[in-house]
Amino acid sequence: MPAVQDTIDRVRKIDVDQYKYGFQTEIAMDKAPKGLSEDIIRFISAKKDEPSWMLEWRLEAYRRWLTLDEPTWARVHYPKIDFQDIYFYAAPKSTPGPTSLSDVDPELLKVYEKLGIPLREQEILAGVQKTDASELEEVSDNVYKSGRVAVDAVFDSVSVVTTFKKELAQAGVIFCSISEAIREHPELVKKYLGSVVPTSDNYYATLNSAVFTDGSFVFVPKGVRCPMELSTYFRMNEKNTGQFERTLIIAEEGAYVSYLEGCTAPQRDENQLHAAVVELVALDDAEIKYSTVQNWYPGDAEGKGGIYNFVTKRGDCRGDRSKISWTQVETGSAITWKYPSCILRGDDSSGEFYSIAVSNGYQQVDSGTKMIHLGKNTSSRIISKGIAAGFSQNTYRGQVSAHRKATNARNFTNCDSLLIGDQCGAHTVPYMEAKNSTAQFEHEATTSKISEDQKFYVMQRGIPEEEAIALIVNGFVKDVIQQLPMEFAVEAQKLIGISLEGSVG
Amino acid sequence: MNMHTQPQRTSAETALIDAFGDRLSLLPGDGAVMLKRDDAIEAIKHGLPTRRIESWHYTDLRRLLNAVPDFDPAAMTKAVAPIVEGSAVLAVLNGKSDAKTPAVEGVTVQRLSEKLTDGSAAPGLDPYGSDDAIGALNTAFVADGYFVDIADGAELEKPIELQNLQAGGQTHVRLMVRVGAGAKAVIVERQAGEGAALVSSVSQLVLGEGAEVTWLIVQEQPETATHLAQFKAHIGKNAKLTLFVMNAGGRLVRQEVMVRTTGEGADFKLRGINLLAGDTHTDVTMVLDHAVPHTASTEVIRNVVTGKARGVFQGRINVHQYAQKTNAKMACNTLLLSDDGEFSTKPELEIFADDVVCGHGATVTEIDHDHLFYLMARGVDEKTARGLLVKAFVAEVIEELDDETIVDALEAKLDDWFVTHG
């Protein structure tokens, strides 16, 4: 435990008002005109040098989107979004398709350094610049030992750089931006894109299908255990832009991959839209672990500005004995609206969802998961911890369903909410649907404030109140933090401290 | 009741709207009451709720209500023996209350048709909001029922049993009960009948300061009837309400429970058992508002699903911003005994106050194999062992009621159900 002053300082640094990633960077940008139309979609597709089937796919999604109404069922309130007032494409002006870090605009690299993601150093340290194959092998050995992370950095609409590509390629793993994958591996993209989240899925997923600009693509072939953690870092920089990224991760038979995602955005008065789609496909015996630390700009203390985070994330346990695990730490965004889900199609497949959602200020969170049990002997586990402070509204909304043929489906759900202050709200809306008598579903939820007893217990051991609360809150979320990869766990713990600033007392 | 414009009216919607036109001249009510009826039928003209309406997500009334019978004013039926011997019986037969009512000390009974005619029942007729299809249906068509007033301090020795017995056709009944300060009573609400009827029944209860009431709803409609019911209560300061709901019949059943604590120290207990069989659909939906500080509630619902039955439990606990020190706990446990049956549950917590302790739990499972093994290892055959375990599972809830005569009466009902559906 650090000294009190230390805690206060640390907390102040990460206050809602002092969002540490709120800086903006002047970078020459290449933008499409504002608004949305078929022309804009053709423009994006042309910019990305896409094959015609991709353009057709986008246009079809766009036409469908025009027929859809914006959903209103979630417990979030916001003014109507004017889709004609958004830039759907913004990319840093740079040499076309940088192949290595040295081609990347140094300003951009500085941004990532500032964010604590020193792309260059990492590569240099790992010695990737060496091209000799034997030396590379040596390097990759080191990589296994030191547990490095390959990063795909997405800046506004495009992926600016992907590190460790060569090494990953040696293992057979494809890790690149989705635009590159559309060009280089069309057969894989064609086969899997839209197979988990179809273009007609929902309003924002359909919009994303029409206008997505970039994102990451991961393919882990049969029997390969991905040699390092993969990570994408999303940064929104330009004013009035929407970010529409698309991530597709495929783990073939017996493959394993762990993927991390982080996000930040500058501090702005107006709201920005982020509507992403993430699709995971796990074949027989494959395992995908997907972790998110979401720290988009949450808006200021009066609730002005911030990101609308409307995301569709879904994993398909297509093969027998496959496993998909979602872990998320949600601290940012003015509005979060996402339900990372698992479709447990294969027999003996399993899905997991671990979530911490912290809301403060005027943030609104409506998040949860869906576990759809279709195969036999499938199991799922949901642990959700919501912490609401300030004037925020924090909702857990989740669905667990067992279909007729899903014999021996097993689910355990636990969602706890902690309220700090009397101006916030915590809500739990679980849906449980059992259509098979062998299904075994358990759900439990509690809502409370930090009990005086707990606080008293800690404080009477000489620990001041602020630290006592931090200690109890960390204990409250421990189950989820444990699921995060080490590098993120530390960051996540700090974030939780920040987000709760001002709510203690 | 529905923001979406419906493309086309279903035959049930058309039948209801036509029936309203036909019945209008026969419905009692002064100007105020008739205005409320008009508003209510307007709501129905907008369409019955579908699964897109969140509170009807698992009971798509528009799709499920596929036949609306005509009114059958000539049909006859008789009051039945009360479940607790010696109860004062107030029967509504085929939608009409009886002019002769038993005299009970401290209790004033009035026919609802009189209160509709003179307009004094008008203030209670408003539906609960735009999604309240049952309230709207009942307000449009209600013709009779009872108004029961239990005087301050009255302690009733025997239960009052309100019977709503349908004889086919349509029956729309309202039962209004006011319990004075410090009064104590047991009230039984029987819902039964003989025909393929459409029944709407709304019960309204107001509990004065320190009043204590146990209210039992025993629903045993035939497997051909549609039963749409609502129970609404306001619990005053330091008052206690124990509501017991038993659903053991009906083709399409929706029992709504809407309770609001209006005084500090109010205490609410809900105990429910749903015994589901055949090709039926039963939905129990509760909305509980903790509107003032220092109130408590516990809810326990047990469900047994057999055959092709579909069951639903939705329970929402709203804790308002000033309702500090609320203590609310809800549990919904289901035994799913058949592969063709299904059960959906949605326990919700909506909490705006911080100093509260709220929790809910829900489980769906089959019979525990260890328990079964335990009994079978002692020579009990499987069928008997299963029967014992299922019965114990629901009887546990009944036994919580501390009145022995009531427990016996309800357990007898339980036995009846197991004899026919075991």
TrEMBL record, chain A:
Gene Ontology biological-process annotations: iron-sulfur cluster assembly
Annotated ranges, domain SUF system FeS cluster assembly SufBD N-terminal: 165-226
InterPro entries: Fe-S_cluster_assembly_SufBD, SUF_FeS_clus_asmbl_SufB, SUF_FeS_clus_asmbl_SufBD_core, SUF_FeS_clus_asmbl_SufBD_sf, SufBD_N
Top-rank taxon, per record: Bacteria
Domain SUF system FeS cluster assembly SufBD core residue range list: 234-476
Similarity comment: family membership: Belongs to the iron-sulfur cluster assembly SufBD family.
Entry-linked PANTHER family: FES CLUSTER ASSEMBLY PROTEIN SUF (PTHR30508), UPF0051 PROTEIN ABCI8, CHLOROPLASTIC-RELATED (PTHR30508:SF1)
Listed name of the protein: Fe-S cluster assembly protein SufB
From TrEMBL, chain B:
InterPro entries linked to this entry: Fe-S_cluster_assembly_SufBD, SUF_FeS_clus_asmbl_SufBD_core, SUF_FeS_clus_asmbl_SufBD_sf, SUF_FeS_clus_asmbl_SufD
Protein name stated in the entry: Fe-S cluster assembly protein SufD
A Pfam short name: SUFBD_core
BP GO annotations: iron-sulfur cluster assembly
Sequence ranges assigned to domain SUF system FeS cluster assembly SufBD core in this UniProt record: 169-393
